Amino acid sequence: MSNKSRPRRRSRLAWTVGILTAVAVLVWLALVARPLGAPGAAAPACLSPGQRELTVHAGESERVRAYVTYGSCAADSGTDTRSGKVRLQLQAQSKSAVQIRPITEETQLVDVDYTEGRWEWEVTPAETGDQHLLLVPTTFAADGKTAAGQIPPEEIVLHSKGTFSYYAAQVWKSALGVVSSLQVFFLAVAAIFGAITGGFVKLGQSANRWRKNRKKPAMDTPDVGYL
What we know:
- This protein is α+β, with helices and mostly antiparallel strands.
- The strands form two sheets. Strands 4-1-3-8-6 form a five-stranded antiparallel beta sheet, with no helix packed on it. Strands 2-10-9-5-7 form a five-stranded mixed beta sheet, with no helix packed on it.
- It is rod-shaped.
- The relative contact order is 0.13.
């Protein structure tokens, strides 16, 4: 082997080692550093509703589920939650039309150790028709304050259908309303009639007293003599 070929082989070996080292560093950054939330690396959390739409009969209850998963989506569709605290609320467009009862804690820990938070609510529609529910997440920084970047909210459409008992209750409620209105009406008529009757009675009594006083004879005044 000539002495001239040895520097070339050493140069090729150095290039190979350098390329392999660069590839190893890139793989480490992609698989280790990014999920651990290294400085400068985004570790977003994504909000995933358990269902986008659900159908419930009015007056009946159904559970709604949602999940916040750590580091599972693109950086432009989530937010950095390395602090690990996420609050998720389910809000109704009309509070009188839908009753919402939380089952799980609103604020949960979501980070590299607890990679998924799960929330549940019990919803009970009081009216028929389509109702819009909104999942509103809030992330917190390490100091406990609201983080700058927030997870976008998600909408859930609730289709509420009526049942025989629901419509029967509505008819009964309407009938009670009509009866109550008629009761108020008759009470008002009775009060007016009583006032008018009482007025005529008093007027008649006054007229009788006037007639009696008119028929009484005038009393004779005694003669007064002078001494």
